[in-house]
Amino acid sequence: MKIPVSKLSDSGFIFIWTINAKYATSVKMMEKWGYKLVDEITWIKKTINGKIAKGHGFYLQHAKESCLIGVKGNVENKVQKSVGSDIIFSQRRGQSQKPEEVYQLIEKLVPQ
Question: What is the pTM of this model?
Fold first, then answer.
């Protein structure tokens, strides 16, 4: 949490991938850096056969990851609203690889 992210920009977006166990910590980091949580994208992981890909979890088997969306400052002239769904159903890829669809969604949301 000592990374000087707050100094990188006076206004803009931040996208942070998190898992259930680190959700609250991720929100705190975002707020410390001056961003406000405004939305999230949920990635439902699928297997190559199209079934839900369950992984390890503390209480439940996890089949999703969340990408938190934060804003800082005035971003109204930088954003295209309602460009897609907040849920992505996509196949798992390599270790820690995120779905290509999320990059496409972010580029639509913040086209600059």
Answer: 0.88
Q: What is the DSSP annotation of the chain?
A: --S-GGGT-SSEEEEEEE-GGGHHHHHHHHHHTT-EEEEEEEEEEE-TTSSB-----SSS---EEEEEEEEES--GGG---S-S-SEEEEE--STTPPPHHHHHHHHHHS--
Per-residue pLDDT of the chain (112 residues; tens, 9 = 90+): 577 777 778 889 999 999 888 999 999 999 999 999 999 999 999 999 999 998 888 888 889 999 999 999 998 888 888 899 999 999 988 788 899 999 999 999 998 7
